[in-house]
Design goal:
- By secondary structure, the protein is an alpha+beta fold.
- Helix content is about 25%, strand content about 20%.
- The protein has helices at about 1-20, 55-70; strands at about 80-90, 100-105, 115-120, 130-135.
- The protein has a four-stranded antiparallel sheet with strand order 1-2-3-4, covered by helices on one side.
- Strand 2 and strand 3 (about 115-120) form a beta hairpin.
- The longest helix has 21 residues, at about 1-20.
- Residues about 15-35 have low confidence and may be disordered.
Length: about 160
Amino acid sequence: MKSASVLAAVLAVLALPSLAAAADYGAKRAVHGRGEASAEARGFTGALPACNDPGVEAHVISGFAATEREYWASDLALSPFVAPREIDYRPWGGEFIPRRFCEAKVVTNDGRKRVVVYNIREDQGFASIGYGVEWCVTGIDRHYSYAPRCKMAAP
């Protein structure tokens, strides 16, 4: 029994360098030996909907309501966005998947004023088709995925 756990520990230590290399998201990528690969060289266009796009807003509002209903047995819902604004666009550089970071003011149906922080990502929709939207509503991050106060959803 002891030798099996020693063997497992040795194998885990040997795997660390490969895991560290896999987690190096900022590593330079080569395209046919020509240096760093931009996102455009990998097929991205950088064309993303604006923060005030009605489709993006509808995606966040309906997704929030569905999550509240299905996971938290709550009827909490968001009002339409007020003053949506861009926080940043492609903050990490041209070799990463294009993202637009936004925030807007909302009122939940319990009467509380909140801020929704969201990002729009190219080719991150269902089955990598279309854009994807990830959001966090301040004060309602029930599983603390973006804690503290949705900071991890921002750039």
